[in-house]
Design goal:
Elements lengths: L1 H10 L16 E13 L4 E12 L4 E14 L4 E14 L2 E21 L2 E14 L2 E17 L7 E11 L10 E16 L2 E12 L7 E13 L1
Parallel strand pairs: 1-11
Antiparallel strand pairs: 1-2, 2-3, 3-4, 4-5, 5-6, 6-7, 7-8, 8-9, 9-10, 10-11
Length: about 230
């Protein structure tokens, strides 16, 4: 898809700064778009809704629409516990192929440490996955860490570096790797564009581990809008 290549060219230079991800030959070029909203229900309770659309050269366009609905309870200023449901229809060339359902639970740790201007956040996510017409429940952990550094002292525009691993806890007919199945490394710029709206643009490298075959490597242009109320 020519549009994906154009998006990638605008952010590819950022990847040179992301030394944690080694260079691999590209197997796929992708575009991920995200819109999310978090609503403060009271001093402790939060409601979050996220919608992610993913597009791929190799899969001829749209291949996934992921809808995540979570309710969270703040245990402290930095720690929130969340639980919810993911509705995840998947496609090939825009044509529906399979429906995946997920239960999701996670602990988030916001700004738990600071080194100079760099703030550190983390998340531990557990997922249970089911697919229509396929037997078995797939379990996996997704540990995540994020570093955020304002581009100037006191500024709200920031450089973001993040890493996430997908650790499969069992095997099923559709989850065939036990152990680390993939990793995502990202570099992005985040900035507020309104009082309750934040925008993020970045480059993400996703590497998939495939026993008995070459690893998969996805170069992803990522665009996200987040709303808070």
């Amino acid at each position: 898809m020519r549009s994906i290549r154009l998006c990638l060219s605008s952010v590819a230079a950022l990847s040179l700064l992301w030394v944690a991800a080694p260079a691999y030959a590209s197997e796929d070029e992708q575009l991920w778009t995200t819109a999310s909203a978090t609503v403060k229900l009271d001093d402790h309770w939060r409601l979050s809704q996220e919608l992610v659309a993913r597009f791929s050269d190799d899969r001829n366009g749209l291949y996934e629409i992921e809808s995540n609905t979570l309710i969270g309870y703040k245990l402290s200023k930095a720690v929130t516990i969340w639980a919810g449901y993911t509705h995840d229809p998947q496609y090939a060339g825009g044509d529906f192929t399979v429906m995946e359902h997920r239960g999701r639970q996670q602990l988030t740790f916001d700004n738990i440490a600071k080194i100079g201007r760099v703030s550190i956040s983390a998340r531990m996510r557990m997922e249970e996955r089911w697919r229509d017409g396929v037997d078995g429940t797939a379990w996996r952990l997704r540990p995540y860490v994020k570093l955020t550094m304002p581009l100037r002292e006191g500024g709200k525009t920031a450089l973001v570096l993040s890493h996430e691993s997908f650790v499969d806890l069992n095997k099923t007919n559709f989850q065939r790797v036990q152990g680390e199945e993939r990793m995502r490394n990202m570099i992005a710029i985040t900035t507020p564009i309104a009082k309750t709206v934040n925008a993020e643009i970045g480059y993400l490298h996703q590497r998939g581990f495939r026993p008995g075959a070459d690893d998969s490597n996805d170069n992803v242009a990522s665009f996200a809008l987040s709303f808070s109320f």
